[in-house]
Each structure stands twice: as C-alpha cells, then as structure tokens.
Design goal:
368 residues; alpha+beta; Jelly Rolls; 3 domains; 6-stranded antiparallel beta sheet; 4-stranded antiparallel beta sheet; 12 helices; 12 strands
Length: 368
C-alpha cells in the first residue's frame, strides 16, 4: 500500500512540476501580451507550494520584471498555504551562501511566517554571509547598545571586522572611536587613499561626456594643461581617513570652473590578485586599470553619490598597477544658504574581494 501511494504521488507531481517549469520559463521571458503573462502567473499560483523551490532555484538575477512576477507568485503561496510550506527545504535554501541573495531572502521570509523568530536565531552565525551579513551586523549593533561598555566594545570590534558595507562600517567605526578605539576604515575596506588630481578642464558638462583630454593618453605628473584661469597642474590629494572619500573641491578642483577632472593612483599588490574594483562618485566616472577601461558611466542625467555603485572584476599583477579616473559633472551643484561654500565633487575607490572585504595592498610614498 505504501509503495502504491508513492507511485501515485510521483504520477501526480511529475506533470505538475513540468507545468510549473514551463510557467516559470514563460514569466522569466514575459511576452508582450499581458493576458498571457497573467495566465502563466495564475497557473503557477494554482500549483501551490510545489512551485516554491523551482522558483527559488531559477531566480532571475538581472531581470527585475521577471523577478517581480515570480516573487508575487511565491508570496501568494506563503500567505495562503502556511501549513503546507516545505519549511525545511526553504530553510536549507536560505542558508546556502551560494544561492541567489534575493531568492534566499524571499525563502527566509516565508520560513519566518511559519516559524517566527527564525531570523533572529540565525543572524549571529551569518556575520560573513554575502546576503545576510549586513543584517547580522545591524542586529549586533543593536545588542551593543544594550550592553555594558566593555562588552559593547568587544561586540563592536567583532562587527567592524565582519562588516563589508561602507555605511555600516562608518556607524561602527564612529562608536568604536567614541569608546577610545582607533578603527582603520581605509585599510579595513581596501580604500585607495593616495591620489594625484588635476582639473577641472574648461568644458561644458555635455561636451565633457564626449570629449577626452591628455591624461587619458599620456600620464605625466609634471605635465601642465590649459585651464579656465591658467595652467592646470597635478596635485597630491588624500582621502578622508574617517570615510575614504576624496573631495576634489578641497584640493582646488571646483566644478564651476569646468566639468572634467582626472585622478590617478598607484597600488602595489604583493602577488597577482583578482579583485573587485568598487567605485563611488558624484555624477559620472570612467576608470582605467593599467590602461584598460574597466568602468564607464557617462550620462547627462544627474547621479547622486552611492557607496560601491559601480563595480568591475579585474586582475592585478604583482607589483605596481596604475588607476586612472575621469570624473565628469553634469552641472555644478547649488550650495544654498552657505555664502562662500563650495559644491562637493566626491569619489571613492576601493579594492575588495568578491564578498566585499578589502584586499591588502600598499601605495608608494613618493607617488602618494
């Protein structure tokens, strides 16, 4: 009797799962016909919990529209079939660091609906998790707020060592500094701190997006270029040690004198290393690594500063590597109510591993 039951289940589920896979494929490549997409969604919802794991395992990584179709179907299962959810399978998927981050988060949310408190129990073990690491750090920061000073400092030190998120690291570093510690943001997150900058070149924002200038073809720290108010020369610049940003305006590169500036740095790797080049900038940025273009963001639309917004995987050889940035403003910022104030023109560059942890490198003193 037991064997017959298993046989009947297989006969029943095989065609159901085949249909589920077809509907998932249809929603991952939505047609131009809204009714066809809705019909596929309805069939997927009708399949119920058996469709949950197939959805998670085929989550569309770079298609928010397709992901939204599948997420809403998944949420429908979680709300209406709470007692039938494959909780253990969902939990195993959520705990897999190699699975898609957004899909893992959706799976954990479904488990939390059935087993409240699951997330809080799991977070302490996920400090270095690629998806839930920031959540784990945030939870421990809250715990530090309720702890006595010595224990709070211990917790914060552990959090600082674990965090790969710039904003979170800033929060933890400030609290550690207030407690008498000296956290090194620049070293911890692999921020490139020593630069030479030149500019701005006297060009309009629109022309600046299209036009190239001599630093792109020949790098020479002794070179001089024509500027709006005289010769432009390379000058040494350093990042803010507390935040890692370089504000060009602090080093005489003012956006109201032109739209394009360049920044150059040298980094020294102890051995050949695959790194993730992570860039943050106000408005547009193009980056070259050892003469090869690695990142390009050039748009006439205003872009706000966002940590780690632009990324590229690059391989740096042992020894010196040259980084060159072209920074282009779309328009000068208005600084209202602050007579004499200068608009910021910020950028930040860091070298990290694929999990966002800073990699070890040095910079030559002579080239800063």
């Amino acid at each position: 009797m037991f064997r017959l039951s298993i046989f009947m289940v297989v006969l029943f589920t095989a065609p159901v799962l085949a249909g589920v896979r077809e509907d998932i494929a249809a929603l991952k490549n939505p047609s131009a016909d809204p009714e066809a997409n809705r019909a596929a969604w309805d069939r997927l919802v009708a399949a119920g919990p058996p469709a949950m794991l197939p959805i998670l395992h085929t989550w569309p990584a770079d298609d928010p529209v397709a992901a939204n179709w599948l997420r809403t179907a998944f949420d429908q299962f979680a709300r209406t079939h709470t007692e039938k959810l494959p909780v253990e399978e969902l939990l195993a998927f959520a705990a897999d660091p190699k699975a898609h981050g957004k899909a893992r988060r959706v799976a954990l949310s479904a488990v939390e609906r059935t087993r409240p408190g699951t997330t809080v129990k799991l977070l302490p073990g996920w400090l270095n998790d690629p998806e839930f690491g920031p959540d784990a750090v945030a939870e421990r920061i809250t715990a530090a707020e309720a702890a006595e000073p010595t224990e709070a400092t211990r917790i914060l030190r552990t959090m600082f060592a674990a965090t790969t998120d710039i904003d979170q690291a800033l929060v933890v570093a400030k609290r550690l500094t207030a407690a008498g510690d000296k956290p090194d943001m620049v070293k911890h997150l692999g921020m490139v701190g020593r630069w030479h900058v030149v500019g701005p070149f006297p060009v309009s924002p629109e022309d600046g997006l299209k036009q190239s200038f001599p630093p792109e073809t020949k790098f020479d720290l002794a070179a001089e270029y024509e500027g709006k108010a005289g010769k432009l020369k390379w000058s040494a610049a350093t990042c803010d040690p507390a935040e890692g940003r370089v504000d060009l305006a602090k080093f005489g590169v003012k956006p109201d004198d032109g739209a394009v500036a360049y920044a150059a740095a040298t980094v020294i790797m102890p051995s050949p290393t695959k790194v993730e080049l992570r860039l943050s900038a106000v408005d547009n940025i193009t980056a070259w690594v050892n003469g090869k273009k690695a990142v390009e963001r050039a748009s006439e639309y205003r872009s706000m500063y966002r940590p780690d917004r632009y990324r590229a995987a690059v391989e740096l050889p042992a020894g010196e590597s040259a980084l060159l940035l072209k920074l282009t403003k779309t328009r000068p910022e208005e600084v209202r109510g602050r007579p004499g104030a200068t608009a910021k023109w910020d950028f930040l560059v860091r070298l990290a591993d694929d999990k966002g942890r800073g990699v070890a490198f040095t910079q030559p003193e002579g080239k800063k």
